[in-house]
Design goal:
The chain has about 270 residues and is an alpha+beta fold. It has 10 helices and 11 strands. It folds into 2 domains: about 90 residues, 434 Repressor (Amino-terminal Domain); about 160 residues, Umud Fragment, subunit A, CATH 2.10.109.10. The protein has a 9-stranded mixed β-sheet. Helix 2 packs across helix 3. A hairpin with a 3-residue loop joins strand 7 and strand 8. About 35% of the residues lie in helices and about 20% in strands.
């Protein structure tokens, strides 16, 4: 059982001493030391107190090796969002496979977006989505295709089909990455992402179309992120700039404007 290493890990992660944590929990330091060193096992009342103190379920504390989790998974757990963990195991993404056990790419059309927001974790719902294969994509990664709407990401046109690669570790997202983001309030959105998880626990979502203002979303509101891979459309995009160049240029412009405004205010 990993309970002992978990409570020691969490205590050190918070930069707390055994004396401080023991006082907060209303127990002797020697008792806490015994728990951390597997000399003694806590009873149910003590487990409940540890669960409240670290804001994690007892099931997670006694079954999940917290030292093996990514920074984002730990952040989500510590903020009460059990998004990745179910019964002590990493949540398995609901998906489908073909007759050769190769993962399909499921399509989420415009009319299915509302249903996807409610059923993204439901294998039965996912199994009802249209699906296909793109043989030129690596087979060791998971992809899903979403139909986008609106003009916020021009030159990618309204109605285009955007394929994304599932992102497990959100801290791996680089500033300027185009991503499909599933949020609790807004549903499915396609934006450039500025990663502020370490600093603010949030993502800044930015449109390529500058008439739309960027906005921040707390990671507790986010359920899935798919990093842009390609898109399909029956419309010919205008201009010759690539999506990557446009995205990075826009971020540089916004950064320069922010710096200029800061100097003016001083």
């Amino acid at each position: 059982m990993v309970f002992a290493s978990n409570i020691k890990f969490l205590r050190k992660r918070r930069n707390r001493t055994q004396d401080e944590v023991a006082e907060d929990l209303g127990m002797k330091r020697s008792t806490l030391s015994g728990y951390e060193n597997e000399v003694a096992m806590p009873g149910i009342p003590a487990l409940i107190e540890f669960s409240k103190y670290y804001n994690m379920s007892i099931d997670t504390l006694v079954k999940v090796d917290l030292t093996s989790l990514t920074g984002h998974q730990l952040y989500m757990l510590e903020h009460g969002e059990d998004v990745f963990l179910r019964g002590g195991k990493l949540r398995v993404l609901a998906t489908t496979v073909d007759t050769h056990n190769v993962e399909n790419i499921e399509l989420v059309p415009e009319k299915a977006k509302a249903g996807y927001t409610r059923g993204f974790f439901d294998p039965e719902y996912i199994s009802e989505l249209p699906r296909y294969q793109l043989p030129f994509l690596p087979s060791d990664r998971k992809y899903r295709t979403f139909q986008v709407s609106g003009d916020s990401m021009l030159p990618i046109p309204d109605g285009a089909w955007v394929t994304g690669e599932f992102v497990q570790d959100w801290l791996s997202i680089s500033d300027g990455d185009p991503c499909i983001v599933l949020t609790l309030d807004e549903g499915i959105v396609f934006k450039l992402v500025e990663n502020q998880i370490r600093e603010k626990g949030s993502l800044r979502l930015i449109s390529l179309n500058t008439i739309y203002e960027p906005y921040d979303v707390n990671v507790s509101e986010v359920r899935e992120i798919w990093r842009f891979v390609n898109y399909t459309s029956n419309e010919m995009p205008s201009g010759t700039l690539t999506q990557e160049i446009i995205g990075k240029t826009l971020l540089h412009i916004r950064s320069d404007l922010k710096e200029i405004k800061g100097k003016i205010s001083k």
